[in-house]
Amino acid sequence: MSFVLIVLNGASANPPAPARITIYGRLTFLSEPSGMRSSTRKAILAALGAACSLCLDIPGTALAATATTTFQVTATVQATCLISATALAFGTYTGSLITATSTISVTCTNTTPYNVGLDAGLATGATVTTRKMQGPSGALLAYALYRDAAHTNNWGNTVGTDTQSGTGNGSAQALTVYGQLAASQYVTPGSYSDTITATISY
Questions:
Q1: Are 198 and 121 in contact (CB under 8 A)?
Q2: Is the separation of the CB atoms in 155 and 164 below 8 Å?
Q3: Are 178 and 149 in contact (CB under 8 A)?
Q4: Taking Cα atoms as reference points, which of 169, 181, 179, 3 lies closest to residue 81?
Q5: Strand pairing report for 81-85 and 98-108
Q6: Residue 69 maps to a domain
Q7: Domain range for 46
Q8: Residues 109 and 50 placed together within one structural domain of the fold
Q9: How do the pLDDT tens digits run along the chain, 202 residues long?
């Protein structure tokens, strides 16, 4: 255990720096009471140390004054959108009209307006109003994509004309793509497919 004794060298207009003397001491329990806990031993030592500080008139370690300051925390949120989609599967076609759907998931920052458009696909000569899947030997199977369940509003890629608009709310929003495979197309049997690119503008 140690203590610091501060010695002042008299009073003057320009007093010298106080001298510091460190006093070292040891407290030994010659006969420690039976069952004395470590916490009790520590409490006794702390009490003795405090008493010695008072005897030497040494100030305690408590801070006498405080000072404060402030600082700013800032950030800039940029408008952002994410988009994903599920596959649209018509299944087996036997010449009768078939409908199917796909779900486009849009997540945009809150209050961010957006438009989602669908391109024409990959088939040669296809447009957003005459989409086609490609099959064996270049055979084509026509289909259409709509924004409504009644299959009347074509889904294209011109903002403000045939795209789907919305406003972000910070959470995922589901947009349904309504697909329709027209009847009476007796093309070469086999597997047909196309790839549509969905683009979100914001």
A1: no
A2: yes
A3: yes
A4: 169
A5: antiparallel
A6: no
A7: 2-55
A8: no
A9: 554 544 444 444 555 555 555 555 555 544 555 555 566 556 655 655 555 554 444 455 566 999 999 999 999 999 999 999 999 999 999 999 999 999 999 999 999 999 999 999 999 999 999 999 999 999 999 999 999 999 999 999 999 999 999 999 999 999 999 999 999 999 999 999 999 999 999 9
